[in-house]
Amino acid sequence: MRFSGALAASLLALAASAMSRAAVPVYTYEVVHTYPHDVHAFTEGLLYLNGVLYESTGLEGHSSIRKVQLESGRVLQKIGIAAQYFGEGIVVWDHQLISLTWKSHVGFVFDLATLELRRRFHYEGEGWALTQDGKRLIMSDGTADLRFLDPATLHETGRLHVTLDGRPITQLNELEYVKGEIFANVWQTDWLARIDPGTGQVLGLIDLSGLLALSERTPGQTDVLNGIAYDAQNDRLFVTGKNWPHLFEIRVKPTDKMAQMNQ
User: Fold this and answer.
1) Which of the four, 61, 117, 241, 249, has the lowest number of CB atoms within 10 Å?
2) Euclidean distance between CA atoms 191 and 26, whole angstroms
3) Total Cβ atoms within 10 A of residue 210
4) How many folded domains does the chain comprise?
């Protein structure tokens, strides 16, 4: 995954500018609950379904698909991805779990119950993350465009160009569909972007800086924020990171400055 060192600074400047004129709301968070997370899980995709988490991990030779107990972090079921592939995002559709790989142009379709491989599919470009809105799959590829895929054929049916304050935002990574919006983690930053699925405009930014304390970061192991899951039935939002020791349930809330502006 390529990363421009100027991206984080650019986002911070845009967020500060947006707050000053109340154009794009900026949110903060509070931690509702902290759960254990496997520090050896290089998290690429995350979702919550029927009381458990499904997680995909990356790195060649270490990629996997896991079914994880939320409360304990215990791996209930796990399959390895062939060593030549770098596992990426996942989504569930019609009793199937669909996964991407980074640069191999290959995706996999597994049986949700058994995690048995059913078939493969191909796509152009890189594969980063997946979610779905009940009608179509939504895929990120590291660019400012999100792709729409037909759930049956897995063929691309269209694209959504994502902009913040009129500027394209690249490095859109892990995705989750939350209350009619697309949440996207901006890779190598502590930001989540709230995206309008109709226009591609960023409706707000969630600043998750400080979520994992410095004292709990292991040099050379702990990596960036990545992994968003939503429990729609109970309105719970979960986030974690690559090789993080915790998964957090968070509540998004307005910043003090934003709340003041809205009075």
Assistant:
1) 61
2) 10
3) 10
4) 1
